[in-house]
Design goal:
The protein is mainly α. Helices cover 89% and strands 0% of the residues. It is built from 3 helices and no strands.
Length: 114
């Protein structure tokens, strides 16, 4: 597909999207509020679940890389193992605290579901 065909396809998709957006704004306010309230719980639950999942995945990767790097440094310089161990434990605690913050935010989001 050449550039002009791609451009025309994207322009037509944009025009179609803009044409149908007027239908969404044509509803009365009560209907929109009721629809938002009925579907908000599912989206909040999905956001809370995805948030804690992504946080746990990122925290696990970060802790794994930090531990691997610290152990590599200890293997290269055994005399600095004590200092590296202390720094590693502090770093792991800080990484885990971010995951705990995500857990707290997920619990707060779940409390918003009516």
């Amino acid at each position: 597909m050449n550039r002009s065909a791609k451009f025309m396809l994207m322009m037509s998709v944009g025009v179609i999207v803009l044409a149908f957006s007027g239908v969404a704004f044509a509803q009365d306010a009560d209907t929109v509020v009721q629809a938002a309230r009925s579907s908000a719980g599912g989206w909040i639950g999905l956001g809370a679940g995805l948030g804690i999942g992504i946080a746990a995945f990122g925290g696990g990767l970060g802790q794994g890389r930090a531990t691997a790097t610290a152990l590599d440094g200890m293997a290269r310089n055994p005399s600095a193992a004590d200092q590296l161990f202390k720094s590693m434990i502090l770093g792991l605690a800080l990484i885990e605290s971010l995951v705990i913050y995500a857990l707290i935010i997920s619990f707060l989001l779940l409390g918003k579901i009516v």
